[in-house]
Amino acid sequence: MVALDAWYDHDGPARVTTAAELDAVLDTVAAMPGPTLVAFNAADDPASAGLLNIGLCSERGVGVVHHAGRGRGYFSLGEASNADTVLYYYMGSDTEFPPQSEIPIADVRRAAHEYLVTGARPTSSIRSQLDDRSTV
What we know:
Largest sheet: 8 strands, antiparallel
Order of helices and strands: EEHEEEEEEEHE
Radius of gyration: 13 Å
Number of strands: 10
Low-confidence stretches: 125-129
Helix content: 10-25%
């Protein structure tokens, strides 16, 4: 497992080293009102694994996954949506996602757990739902 820093409030990062600690962070973010983001990076070498953004919206049972690293960006890919944009909130700021990026919350949580174990972009848990697109 990789030690992660989880950023979701202005108090600084929460250190995550176990699956239980990751679940606690995800539960905290899921309990926040509206669609909310938490950003994860490797605690000891932030640039090594890139940045994983996990968005959770418990009211609708969906979320988003975004991984950025080495000049590439990967978004989760769900069903087509009627929305022009999908907004999740990171520490009070709007963060826009493609309209088809929302996937079931269970898949989002699996992606976060995969990142904790591998320290790399999630692939196996949501392979069919990741869309390779540039973030630029």
